[in-house]
């Protein structure tokens, strides 16, 4: 089964930046390369929501609330997915998850935006 490990979260002030990483293991590079990848987030008391997607061709889509501030990217050779976040706002505070991949999720990484 696929394993996803997110990292890079932390505490940043409003306007700050972070770069999240997601390492996918237990799958081949080929299988990873033919899967669209996503980042979701879940804030306390709220449902998990889609933040950004990247297709196998490298096409990207973003939720309106992060458009222009976040950038998703992938490295198929390393089986990695990234989310570069800038101009962070307090409402971006959430646990960020890479996935799902074959129905599996990672444990998430906490992003807290606060002064």
Structural commentary:
With 115 residues, the chain is mainly β. The protein contains 1 helix and 10 strands; from the N terminus they run βββαβββββββ. Helices cover 4% and strands 46% of the residues. β4 and β5 form a beta hairpin. The protein has a 6-stranded mixed sheet with strand order 2-10-9-4-5-6, with no helix packed on it. A 4-stranded antiparallel sheet has the order 1-3-8-7, with no helix packed on it. The model has no long low-confidence stretch (mean pLDDT 95).
Could you write a compact summary of the structure shown?
The chain has 115 residues and is mainly β.
Please tally the helical runs, counting DSSP H or I stretches of 4 or more residues. Answer: 1
End-to-end distance: 40 Å
**Which sequence of SSEs, written as H and E, runs from N to C?**
EEEHEEEEEEE
Radius of gyration: 13 Å
Number of strands: 10
User: Based on helices, strands and strand pairing, what is the structural class?
Assistant: mainly beta
Oligomeric status: single chain
Range of strand content: over 45%
Q: Could you list the spans in which at least 5 consecutive residues all have pLDDT below 50?
A: none
Choose one word for the global shape.
globular
Helix proportion of residues, in percent?
A: under 10%
Please state how the strands of the largest beta sheet are arranged side by side.
2-10-9-4-5-6
- Let me know the average pLDDT: 95
Largest sheet: 6 strands, mixed
How are the SSEs placed, and which strands pair?
Blueprint: E1 3-7, E2 10-12, E3 18-25, H1 29-33, E4 37-42, E5 49-54, E6 60-62, E7 70-75, E8 80-85, E9 94-98, E10 109-113
Parallel strand pairs: 2-10
Antiparallel strand pairs: 1-3, 3-8, 4-5, 4-9, 5-6, 7-8, 9-10
């Amino acid at each position: 089964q696929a394993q996803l490990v997110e990292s890079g979260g932390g505490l940043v002030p409003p306007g700050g930046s972070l770069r999240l990483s997601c390492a996918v293991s237990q799958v081949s590079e080929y299988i990873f390369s033919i899967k669209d990848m996503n980042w979701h987030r879940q804030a306390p008391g709220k449902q998990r929501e889609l933040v950004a997607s990247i297709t196998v061709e490298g096409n990207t889509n973003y939720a309106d609330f992060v458009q222009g501030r976040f950038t998703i990217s992938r490295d198929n050779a390393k089986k990695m997915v990234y989310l570069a976040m800038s101009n962070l706002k307090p409402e971006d505070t959430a646990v960020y998850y890479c996935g799902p991949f074959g129905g599996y999720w990672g444990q998430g990484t906490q992003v807290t935006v606060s002064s």
